[in-house]
Write a structure and sequence with these properties.
heterotetramer, A: about 150 residues, alpha+beta, Aldehyde Oxidoreductase, domain 3, four-stranded antiparallel sheet, about 35% helix, globular, C: about 80 residues, Ubiquitin-like (UB roll), five-stranded mixed sheet, two-stranded antiparallel ribbon, 3 helices
Chain lengths: ~150, ~150, ~80, ~80
Amino acid sequence: MTVRVQTQDFDVGFEINQLRVARPDVGAVVSFVGQVRDLNDGNTIATLTLEHYPGMTEKSLEAIVNQAKSRWNIMDATIIHRVGTLQPLDQIVLVAVSSAHRNEAFSACEFMMDYLKTEAPFWKKEATAEGEQWLEAKETDETARKRWEK
Amino acid sequence: MTVRVQTQDFDVGFEINQLRVARPDVGAVVSFVGQVRDLNDGNTIATLTLEHYPGMTEKSLEAIVNQAKSRWNIMDATIIHRVGTLQPLDQIVLVAVSSAHRNEAFSACEFMMDYLKTEAPFWKKEATAEGEQWLEAKETDETARKRWEK
Amino acid sequence: MKIKIFYFARLKETLKFSTEDLELPDETLTILKLKALLAQRSDTWHEMLMGKLKVRGAINHELVDDLATIHDGDEVAFFPPVTGG
Amino acid sequence: MKIKIFYFARLKETLKFSTEDLELPDETLTILKLKALLAQRSDTWHEMLMGKLKVRGAINHELVDDLATIHDGDEVAFFPPVTGG
């Protein structure tokens, strides 16, 4: 398992390869890359600043990977989340999962993103021409997470 | 849209970046990478040879991307599929999708893989210590595709 | 009418044909009728096209079912269920 | 008992506190009781911890609900619903 919280950027190709190189039992790697958009709910974004809770963040990301591992037959997973001040077009997050077959990797990757969005202690503040504001948690993210409780 | 059928390998990181670089409206890129496993249904694989139907293959992959675009609000998609003789640990296929929000990219990527598996004219022949054999289509792939018809 | 036929994968290998040009009488021709016609060539052809194996057909690069009609100049293909990805 | 409290995001910014060490009488302390205690500091504290804003609590790096009990030496944190990813 790889879990990292960092200010610097990451190399998606490298991280995906790490999950399959020298692992001939891996048949599938599914990944999610999140990028800072220039427009959010109609606001033009200048910068996006991510704060987190050091210590708890890593622990909660590891717990998310472990939950995914207990639910699906996956082989390994990587979560990298950036913090600090980012700009549009910057990468924010990578979640990648390896498994023998595709359906498990798809489910586990989506599950991890839904839990990351609702349980990992990150907070976003956006700066626009009108000033700065903390982003509100979205009801749709909570709904997305809840579907896994079925 | 990028659709390629080729014998040479591809660079996953480069292809994923192509879907988001200079596209600040993209918030999410979901991708699937398929790799040749060393073991399939209990057989130790020496090589896997992929045959396809030139002309129809490209057309069917483009049709799959267009179907995904008509069903979800996605921005762009890439499908690269290798043909020829591959070995365990070689990459076979990449399907990547960009969108503003993650749920659409996840659904579209999984949809495209399920359709690719059941509609794109590729055939796999595996060589093991016991000789060569064509792989049979899997019922589970057909089932996976059918769930999108709901 | 003239048509071109392609065979792929197990069919190509067993029939030892990858492609052929065929000239046929101008009558209504479906995928099923063409299969039956080709199946008369030998037991092997019969087994590959009308036997227990599932065979899929395409006309001009589109997957079609057995009742699809073939027209002059069409490109027809026969192959097993696909196994890519 | 002694506890450490962390505040994050909007709470940290508005309360102008990121962390503090607190010594409290040895009685049963829940997250809700601690919130009520801190809310007495000023209207701003009351608004941030007991107002309309949703506040989530954690004890020793685990998300907990209002009825969770805090023990001597615990690390408590208060923050708004998370918005990462």
